[in-house]
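Lecture 7 notes: from sequence to structure.

We start with a single chain of 493 residues. Read the sequence below before looking at the structure.
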Amino acid sequence: MVDCFYDTKMNKPYYYLGHGFIGNYDTFIFPVDGIDKLYPKEWKKGQPTKPDDVTTNFRTRFFYEQLGNMLGPKELPDDMRDYKVVVAENADHTSEILKKCSNAKVLAWDTETSSLKWYLKDSKIGCFTISIDGETGYYISADFIFKSRLNRKLFCEMCYSCNTMVGANIKFDLHYLSKQMPEFDINKVKHIDDVGQLSHAINSDRTKGLKPLTFFYTPFGGYDDELDVYKKQLKITNYLKIPQSILSKYATIDAIVTYRIFFALTKHMQWIDENFPNEKPIDWTISKWYNDFMVPAYTKFFKMEHTGMCIDYDYLLSVRQRLLKRIPEVTKKLADIWGVPTTFKFNSTLELGKQIEKMGWPCVERSAAGNYATSDACIQEWKRQNQPGIKELIQLRELNSFLGTFIGMPSDTGNQEDATGWEQFVTYHPEDNSYRIHQSYLIMGTETFRCIGKDPNLQNVPVHSKLASEINRCITVPTAPHYRIEFESGEII
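Now the structure, written as tokens:
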């Protein structure tokens, strides 16, 4: 996106587009905004500018700065080497590769999986890709590792022996690995780096995914474009359904570019620390922030995610039944007050706005289409006016919100990913007969470096509603057998 290049002082305002993927350009690209934003015809929505008005703005000034940058000095990406993909032929060949990749200074690796939800029962890894030099990438079918006792051991030794393990959102891959290889011990890994985390430490406003970072720091931007086209044409969401002959090339480049991006980011971070020291004491650098705070937190949050949050599933089911019983009761009461059928679409903002206008309520705000707006602010104003049925409308909205956003409904298709609310995330663990939600965290991932949860966000449970206690009651703790007391004598009970 253009706004990823607005920072022209600490980041390059351009990128280098190589060849072989999106055309054969081999040229520098200077992103700018479109002409309608550079010279807007409106100074405010629906209000055109006058002929004599100055229409230039920040984007216009950035455009002219980019013209100057085009004429100025430019740098190619640090690593312009071509790459090589090696596909493991069998378990023995895999053993050779794993031994070769042991004791690496930097071990970059990635996986391709059947789902974005590692904790689902049928989710699994399809392949591993590895690079230890940023030039050669190895593609290994997961079966060559998981079905071989020797290769399972060699893979663990490879991870433990490297100076640093690097990935892009690597905790996702570590979750899968820990699930399918229980003997893997993350505590034995010396150091874990994540290029997304490192990029965020440098610039929290910039897009941080592996694909954008490839444009920023390598000549291979757009390397997966053909794969995306293939996926869209065949409507494939499961990477394991993509033939190896097609997948191996693009998947392996993931590990190669991850390796190169890591070194480019490290170099860039050091350059910023040297040239743009902040107002804090001299040792408070980006490097210190990343290495002393973000990296140690990474493994802690990984363990938190992997353990998950215990859910009292029986109580969750009882709450669902109470909500399902209450919703039609409140719906009928509201329908009677307003004189509409119970089939009225109370959840439709358009239909709701039309009905409220029809009943003659004062207009608080209109939507862009000119209809009555029904935002929370509008609802609160009508509540202040004590309009008939407004309390029931608020209650109905709340009931539907708690059911859809939190408690959820199971899938009609049998596919858990089609469920709603928490139901799509609740996972049964037969080893201890528990139900858990494995929330994912953006670790210091907001623009202000706060930690935030997602899929689902358990930090977003309301506290002021009367129903809030019902939702919070679903979150519980492990049952008593999970606790133990260890005495100094060594006795455990």
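The chain has a mean pLDDT of 91. Keep this in mind for problem set 3.
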